[in-house]
């Protein structure tokens, strides 16, 4: 008998699942329940979203937009708490292990979609919901085949096998798929030349590729793929006229189609590029994707208000970066001014990278930063960016924490004088994920007195199961067993987040 089967047996007997050592040593386990059922479930994932991102967006919304975030209002009034995010083998998770914890209720290693380290598949929650008769929707600003949406529906040992995941989606048969990732559907871009658009159309999907087609379509089942890779950042959609639907527009296309189903639905919405902007230390891109997420959140809460048999679970999978607003000036009096300076930013580093091309000179770099980031670079800073773009040379020297040339572009914009802000006073320490606990919030009827507190991310799976009355247990793997399997692998996992498009 395999060790995992033994563990499964002990679970059935009511023992605690074997979790990473911190829990085995007696960390408290908070297990609040909803105490009621719902017909529909919406899981809204803010990918790579931490409290520092929240603080910056909250301050910007109040100060520059003259309003409070929908998220701020919900935090003030509805049950919310924190989730620990560590994966089976690392205190720092990536998005597939985090997605797996939410969707399967068990900890896994980083890198696979709804599988354990030995490749044995886990049953994702939306697969179980579909079997129970629920309609299914996946909506994201990343490639639709990316780890967070995929981990809710299908299993694959490699989160980067997105061409294959696209085929798995066809077989899975969700009602709505909206996001990016043309290269995984288009016969001219797929290595095997398969035409997945034609295959989806044959299976009864309306296939749409532009915001106009999305608005016009009256198909009940929908595949919308709006970009070659990830859907461009909100800051570029909003200020540079990049033609893709907003997350809110995608949500508004998904909801009525799913709500038309008699047995209810499950929907995952992902604000997926907050994470990517954080990987690139691009504060304004993070801000605008967070603000766009907030607009989509308004649409979702309005739907819940009209359909009170719907539960909305808002959750981050981990933090990333993390760019923080730092105190500036005497008595920190200049700190808020640093927030105002974000208003001058009108494009992402990704957009600027494309505008600069492969071999810009210092004058082009200075002009691009002036026009698109509102920042006057010094000659030296501009020269450093040139070398980062042309030769991937890192700056500051000896510091290699992220993806070039974005991280040098970010460093070029860093605050130099803490007394007089002339650039947004947002600082970064890395372009990687972190271990901080992140947000969990519930919105729906009958939850007023629920206390969440500090939970494990796997508890989201139990909340979803309780909400819809769908309960099952996936097999648990021990950290030791997973480490043995990982040691035997010839090569390590690829860098999990390919975000410099
Ligand atoms: Zn990430």
From TrEMBL:
The keyword Metal-binding applies. Mg(2+) binds at residues 47, 146, 148, 270. Its cofactor is Zn(2+); Mg(2+). The keyword Transferase does not apply. Residues 1-24 form the signal peptide. GO terms for molecular function: alkaline phosphatase activity; metal ion binding. PROSITE patterns: TAT. Zn(2+) binds at residues 47, 275, 279, 317-318, 433. The active site is at residue 95. Binds 2 Zn(2+) ions. Binds 1 Mg(2+) ion. Pfam families: Alk_phosphatase (PF00245). PANTHER family: ALKALINE PHOSPHATASE. Belongs to the alkaline phosphatase family. This is Alkaline phosphatase. Keywords: Magnesium, Metal-binding, Phosphoprotein, Signal, Zinc.
């Amino acid at each position: 008998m395999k060790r995992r089967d033994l563990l499964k047996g002990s679970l059935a007997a009511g023992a605690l699942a074997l979790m990473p050592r911190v829990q085995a040593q007696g960390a408290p386990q908070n297990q609040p329940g909803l105490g009621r059922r719902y017909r529909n479930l919406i899981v809204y994932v803010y990918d790579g979203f931490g409290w520092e991102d929240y603080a910056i967006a909250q301050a910007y919304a109040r100060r520059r937009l003259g309003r409070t975030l929908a998220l701020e209002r919900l935090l003030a009034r509805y049950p919310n708490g924190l989730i620990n995010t560590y994966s089976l083998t690392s205190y720092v998770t990536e998005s597939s292990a985090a997605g797996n914890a939410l969707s399967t209720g068990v900890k896994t290693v980083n890198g696979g979609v709804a599988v354990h380290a030995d490749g044995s598949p886990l049953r994702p929650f939306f697969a179980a919901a579909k079997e129970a008769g629920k309609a299914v929707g996946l909506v994201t600003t990343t490639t639709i085949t990316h780890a967070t949406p995929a981990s809710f529906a299908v299993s694959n040992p490699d989160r980067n096998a997105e061409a294959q995941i696209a085929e798995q989606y066809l077989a899975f048969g969700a009602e709505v798929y909206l996001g990016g990732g043309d290269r995984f559907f288009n016969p001219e871009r797929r290595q095997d030349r398969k035409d997945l658009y034609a295959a989806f159309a044959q299976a009864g999907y309306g296939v749409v590729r532009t915001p106009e087609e999305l608005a016009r379509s009256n198909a009940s089942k929908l595949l919308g793929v709006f970009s070659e890779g990830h859907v461009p950042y909100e800051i570029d959609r909003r200020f540079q006229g990049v033609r893709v639907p907003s997350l809110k527009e995608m949500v508004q296309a998904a909801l009525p189609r799913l709500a038309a189903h008699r047995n209810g639905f499950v929907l995952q919405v992902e604000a997926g590029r907050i994470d990517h902007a954080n990987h690139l230390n691009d504060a304004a891109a993070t801000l605008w994707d967070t603000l766009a997420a907030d607009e989509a959140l308004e649409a979702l809460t309005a739907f819940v208000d009209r359909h009170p048999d719907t539960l909305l679970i808002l959750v981050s999978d981990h933090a990333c970066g993390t760019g923080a607003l730092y105190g500036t000036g005497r008595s920190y009096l200049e700190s808020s001014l640093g927030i105002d300076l974000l208003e001058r930013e009108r494009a992402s580093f990704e957009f600027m990278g494309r505008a600069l091309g492969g071999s810009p000179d210092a004058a082009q770099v200075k002009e691009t930063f002036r026009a698109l980031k509102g920042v006057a670079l010094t000659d030296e800073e501009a020269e450093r960016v040139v070398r980062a773009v042309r030769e991937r040379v890192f700056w500051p020297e000896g510091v290699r924490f992220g993806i070039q040339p974005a991280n040098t572009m970010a460093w070029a914009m860093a605050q130099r004088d803490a007394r007089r802000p002339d650039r947004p006073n947002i600082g970064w320490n890395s372009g990687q994920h972190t271990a901080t606990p992140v947000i969990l919030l519930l919105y729906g009827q009958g939850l007023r007195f629920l206390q969440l507190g500090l939970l494990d991310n796997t508890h989201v799976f139990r909340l979803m199961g309780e909400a819809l009355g769908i309960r099952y247990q996936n097999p648990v793997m021990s950290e030791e067993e997973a480490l043995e399997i990982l040691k035997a692998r010839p090569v390590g996992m690829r860098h999990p987040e390919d975000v410099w498009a």
